[in-house]
Amino acid sequence: MFQNYMRRLFWLILGVAVSSIGIAMMLQANVGLEPWSVLQQGMSLRTGMTYGTASAIAGAAAILTAVLFGESFGFGTIINIAGCAVIIDAIQAAHLIPQMHGLVSGIAMLITWLYMKSELGSGPRDALMVALARKFGRSAGACRAVVDMLVTVIGFFLGGPVGIGTIISAVGLGPLINLNFAAVRFKPAEVHQENVAETIQRICKSR
User: Fold this and answer.
1) Which pLDDT belongs to residue 48?
2) Where are the alpha helices (DSSP H) in the chain?
3) Average pLDDT in the 151-158 region?
4) Does the CA dihedral 157-38-53-105 come out positive or negative?
5) How far apart are CA 16 and CA 121, in angstroms?
């Protein structure tokens, strides 16, 4: 049991690292941010906090909203929130990814992020998407699209950058998510995610 959890933890951390690199690439694409990043960058610009801190706060708010809709969360969600915040801020502070200054190169970098994001596992925003899909009986992609439009509007009024990249992300991510789920016959609303209490209980029983 312990080895199984360690193996799952390895893949989780790898996923968080890949996600963080993708988000840093999107931030440096310089063609407008994806919806949640519009909100988080707006929070950063308005308050002076780092993007990673804003990301953690937004992620925590997303998972709390999902909990209100009956969704649970696990240790993976917590690691996702904290890990992405730390790694993104570290990448940005070290200037590891150069900023793009051309439209073509910027869109290419953004699309790379879009593809990476569409295949990632469950994080706080994904949990919210699944909770809404279960609650209202709609597709995960449709629920994601509605939430994305809402956070984009809020982020815009906070000063977050909106551009062609925002439109590409808002329009493209939902269908990509649905396409990937359909390709592997995966129905996120029907999957039970192991929560914190269940993880602790299973580890204790294995001893």
Assistant:
1) 95
2) 2-29, 35-47, 51-68, 75-94, 103-118, 124-136, 140-158, 164-183, 196-206
3) 93
4) negative
5) 9
Round to whole Å and give the CA distance between 71 and 130.
8
- The answer to whether the beta carbons of residues 49 and 43 sit under 8 Å apart is yes
Name the residue with higher pLDDT: 74 or 86. 86
pLDDT of 10 higher than 50: yes
**pTM of this prediction?**
0.77
Determine the Cα–Cα distance for residues 100 and 96; give it in Å rounded to an integer.
13
Provide the pLDDT confidence category of residue 193 given band limits of 50, 70 and 90. Answer: low
CA atoms within 13 Å, Cβ hemisphere of 122:
25
Which two three-digit tokens encode residue 56? 């953690």
| DSSP-derived 3-state class of residue 122 | coil
Between CA 8 and CA 20 the distance in angstroms is 18
**Amino acid in position 90:** A
pLDDT band at 51 (very low <50, low <70, confident <90, very high): very high
Distance, in Å, from the CA atom of 32 to the CA atom of 168, rounded to the nearest integer, reads 9
Q: How far apart are CA 55 and CA 107, in angstroms?
A: 22
- What sign for the dihedral angle of Cα 115, 83, 106, 161? positive
